[in-house]
Structure formats: structure tokens, C-alpha cells
Amino acid sequence: MNMQNNIYVISGASSGIGKSCVDLLLEKGATIIGLDLHEPEIKDNNYQHFITDVTDENSILSAIKEIEKQFTIIDGLINCAGIFANSKPLYDITSDEWNKVISTNLTGTFLLSKYISKIMIKNMKGKIVNISCIRSKIFRPNMADYAASKGAIVSLTSAMALDLSKFNIQVNAVAPGFTYTGMTSKSFDNPEIRKMSENLIPGGKIAMPEDIGKVIIFLLSDSSDYINGETIFVDGGYGILK
Ligand code: NAD
User: Fold this and answer.
1) What predicted TM-score, i.e. pTM, was given to this entire model?
2) Which of 63, 120, 145, 211 could disulfide-link 50, Cβ–Cβ 3.0 to 4.6 Å?
3) pLDDT tens across 142-151, in order?
């Protein structure tokens, strides 16, 4: 996989799966533009960061303006920014709570993809990777908001692939299982929850961010050129035991 000198945009770059993608791509000599609500710990000459809120179109547009000043080619986009469920039953979720999950996980992916794909279209080349979740098809109580956002990512990914394939842009998604990140560390640091979760996985361990990141990097690489519109479940076999 030669990704040296390629340019990638990653949302949610400051933590978890997004941060692992930054690290893996920097190791390959790529240039990374990270977008996140928070400053990253990453310090690397090939990394630059824009504080961006993916739920806010103006915030995305100001990042795009800066990106376009410096780059004419974007080789890939990873839509990693995301938040978890409000953890309430359907009948207790307020409209504001619902909108926050949908606007971060779904609309954020749409907006960033819309503007980055315009740059890719000019170059007739690009790869986009969206992030779904096992909760797009295996459900648990109190996750209606999150499940809806992640199920929609599966559909959006296929629909985006259709619109963009004539421009030689491939769009795929990964659907991670239990992964130790900023989103989940509080739960998985509890030995009881960790054990209970690991018992649900045939391989017996939860994923680390790079377990997911490596599959995302594969989907950005030339090795995946003939995969398009797919969601790949990366869950250690959780789905086959459901
Ligand atoms: P994380 O909390 O470690 O990282 C998410 C990052 O997104 C954070 O840096 C956060 O600041 C950023 N972010 C949140 N809202 C944002 C916004 N409005 N604008 C810009 N940035 C924003 O969590 P993670 O687990 O690495 O999550 C990455 C993706 O993976 C999410 O879409 C999540 O739903 C998905 N996912 C995670 C798991 C898991 O078990 N951790 C499982 C399946 C799917």
C-alpha cells in the first residue's frame, strides 16, 4: 500500500478510531488534515488540525476554505466524528437530544462528504470511508437515536457510492463492534462490563482503535478498488453469535 505523499481528511481525528487512522497514515508518510471539536495531542509536520464542528455547515465551510488554499487533491476522507446514544428509551428522548445524535453521526457525514467530494470530482479520484456500527443491525434497548444514525450510514454509503462512482470515487463503511476509545473507555474500564462484553465476542477480546483503523486504511488503499458501496463489519465475530 503506497500512500506516501497522499492527502487525507479525517473527522474525529483527536480521539479513538479517528486518531488511530491519523497515526497509521502518518506512519505511511501521508499528509493528514484533522478536523475535530478538540485540539489533538498529535504533533507532526505532516499533520494539521482545524477545530471544526461537523454539525455546523459554516464550520465545515471555513475548514474547506483553508484546505482549498493549500491542497488541490484530496485522496481520501474518513468520517469518524461521532457521539453515542443518549441512552434513553425512545419515549424519553427529546427532539434536541435526537437531533444532536443525528446531526453529528449522519448529517456531519453527509456535509463533509458533500464538500470533500467536490474536490475529488475535479480530480476524478478519491476514497471515502464512513463509520457505521454493529448497532445498525443488532439492537439493544435505549439506542434508538444511535441505531437510526448508524443504520442510515449503511444506506447513505451505498447511495453515495452510486452518485460518485462515475467520478472514480469509491465509498465504503466499516461497522465496528466493541472498541476501546474515548467513547467507551469508562464502560470498558469497569472489569465486569469488560468481561461481559468480551464473553459476547468469539475471539474473546474487544477491539483496540487500530484494529478498526487497519481496515479503514485498507478501504482507502488501491487494494480495495473493486469494493464499492459496502459496509464491512469489523466486530471480532460478534455478529455471528447474535
Ligand atoms: P471517540 O469519542 O474516541 O472519538 C470521536 C471523536 O469525534 C472525538 O474526538 C470527538 O471530539 C469528535 N467529535 C464528536 N462530535 C463532533 C463534532 N460535532 N464535530 C467534530 N468532531 C466531533 O469515539 P470513537 O469510538 O473513536 O468514535 C468514532 C466513530 O466510531 C463514531 O462514529 C462511533 O459512533 C463509531 N463507533 C465506535 C464504536 C466503539 O465501540 N468505540 C463502535 C462502533 C462505532
Assistant:
1) 0.98
2) 63
3) 999 999 999 9
